[in-house]
Amino acid sequence: MANNKKLIRLSTSSDSAEWDTQFDDGILISPNMEISLRGLSFDRSDPTILINGENNLITFQAKEGSVHEIYLPTGTFSSSNITALFRQFQNLMNGKSLLSNNKEFGLQYYVGVNQTNKFELRAIQNEYLNTANDDNHREHEYWNFKANMKTQVPANLPSPLVQTVGRQDTIGDFNNSYTYHEHPFTKGCGVFRLRLNEMANPTSAGVLVMGLCNDITKLQTGTITVASMEIAIEVVSETAAYRVRTSTTQLGAFEPVTNYIGNVTNETPATRNQAGGDVDDHDVLEISLENDTLSARIHTTAGFSNFISIPYVRNSSSSGKDLYPFVCLYKPLATIKVDQVACNWDTSYDNYYNPLSTNKRETNNLSVLSFPRGLSAEHATMDEASNGVSIWKLESNSLEVSRFFGWSHDVFGTNLANPFIDPVPDRHEQTLYNTIAPQQRSLYFPHLFDTSKSDGVSGDKMVCVLSSNVYLVEMLNIKLDSYDSFDKKRGRANILAVINSNEFNTGNLDRVLMYEPNDPIYISMVNAQELSLRNIRCRIVNLDYSPVLTVGISTITLHLRPYDRYEK
């Protein structure tokens, strides 16, 4: 066969790696030619944005009438510090949720990028995990009964938590009988609660401690100390005042509660928590997180009181400390029982409502924590998440900022009439989502009804990223015998090559990708007739066919040859 091989080099200064090349002389292409990529070179651009006091406002809500405002940190942002910006974005949203809002109670936000390097937001409103020995839902599996602790199984759940042995410990014996949650406490908005089920005046001081531990190894190894308690409540006896511990308490120890806020005037457990009383009237102790504040609280039939509060610190490199709920019982079954031990947990950590996981646990009909009977209006927190309609919105006050994040008018909520409520809310480019969604208490936003998906609400375009794991070379005016199953194609795609290298894994220290395949793959051009090419159009795209942003001159080299079944 006559040699009709051709080498074609294309250059472009396009800022999106696109070629539209005209030739003065037509390139003669014989029938049944094959084409391959022999090499390419391009320099990725690094988009930047200046965020200042005029464009940094973000408004959002999970419930109609409960709009929050946050202000993104100011400065110039690019790929070098975009992660810090997303972290602050996330922290600011998590710091706004309120326990008094039944759509934010138990809610935690996640902001970052998905696997295709697009801006992504997820919001998860979780149920309590409690200690009840309920094999239907297995909530108890997330509590580690470390030492001399068990659930006492009565006729009705939830089960009281008690000692397995009749120990008579004293104050400070934290490691003899305790249980703890294996995953961190929520970093959004939530509570850790327990109820004093039965209580008898102990023969010596000391009843229980409940709180959040700042060192998981202390819980795992049975070496809990006062210093490892970020915040805690201690019950001394029926007649002594409740005591609290935080990182700010004097002498680094427990202190009696002396300053009550609210309607609680009886500062001690007294007789209202004895076995002879109605358990629905017993005190509920609570550690809460909302508005970037950790608080130790109590709920009684008289109402709500705040014992003490400390800041919950977040920053650009941290979403906040990992804090682990724990309960220590000093006394045996005849002296103390607690029940309704439950907490909201960090949804980015465990493998059920994890934004990085597709495994979702069943959450229907979980037991709901209740307040003591009486003045429910006087309580500052909800008793459960709402199963009503959510009206989700998130908007930027700046078109520049929303475009930098890759948002557009059709990102979310426009073409999902079912199961989303009609009519679909209005959208514009400064809106990430505007969605009315019917939902149960267990919420995995946004795909409430399709648990096979793992992504959240995402933008349409890749955001401020220098590299892609995979690039595609696509011919735009030459028909090729190649195909793609990607959602946007699902058929013929005219793909010339798949580049499994990027500008970093090739060893380059800059943004330039120089690629030459060791074994070029030839693709049929599907030309039964001879043709003359005066124009070649092609482009390099990311794996999702989004544009690759470039600077300077980009080049691509093509090789054409006649089909030969024997040629390798």
Question: Nutshell version of this structure?
Answer:
With 568 residues, the chain is mainly beta. The protein is 4% helix and 38% strand. The protein contains 3 helices and 37 strands.
Could you characterize the architecture of this molecule?
With 568 residues, the chain is mainly β. It folds into three domains: 6-46 and 466-562, Jelly Rolls (Sandwich); 59-125 and 395-462, no CATH class; 130-378, Sandwich (Jelly Rolls). The protein has helices spanning 82-94, 216-221, 399-404, and strands at 6-12, 18-29, 33-44, 49-51, 57-61, 68-71, 75-77, 107-113, 118-125, 129-130, 143-147, 149-151, 161-163, 178-181, 190-199, 208-213, 229-235, 243-246, 255-256, 261-262, 284-290, 293-300, 303-311, 324-329, 336-343, 389-396, 431-438, 443-445, 457-462, 471-475, 483-484, 491-492, 495-499, 512-515, 523-524, 531-542, 550-562.
Please, what is the average pLDDT?
80
Largest sheet entry: 7 strands, antiparallel
Estimated share of beta-strand residues: 35-45%
Widest β-sheet, arrangement of strands: 10-25-15-21-22-23-20
Structural class: mainly beta
Helix content: under 10%
CATH class category of the largest domain: Mainly Beta
Write the layout of secondary structure elements.
Elements: E1 6-12, E2 18-29, E3 33-44, E4 49-51, E5 57-61, E6 68-71, E7 75-77, H1 82-94, E8 107-113, E9 118-125, E10 129-130, E11 143-147, E12 149-151, E13 161-163, E14 178-181, E15 190-199, E16 208-213, H2 216-221, E17 229-235, E18 243-246, E19 255-256, E20 261-262, E21 284-290, E22 293-300, E23 303-311, E24 324-329, E25 336-343, E26 389-396, H3 399-404, E27 431-438, E28 443-445, E29 457-462, E30 471-475, E31 483-484, E32 491-492, E33 495-499, E34 512-515, E35 523-524, E36 531-542, E37 550-562
Antiparallel strand pairs: 1-37, 2-36, 3-34, 3-35, 3-37, 4-7, 5-6, 5-26, 8-9, 9-28, 9-29, 10-25, 11-14, 12-13, 14-24, 15-21, 15-25, 16-17, 16-24, 17-18, 18-19, 20-23, 21-22, 22-23, 26-27, 30-33, 30-36, 31-32
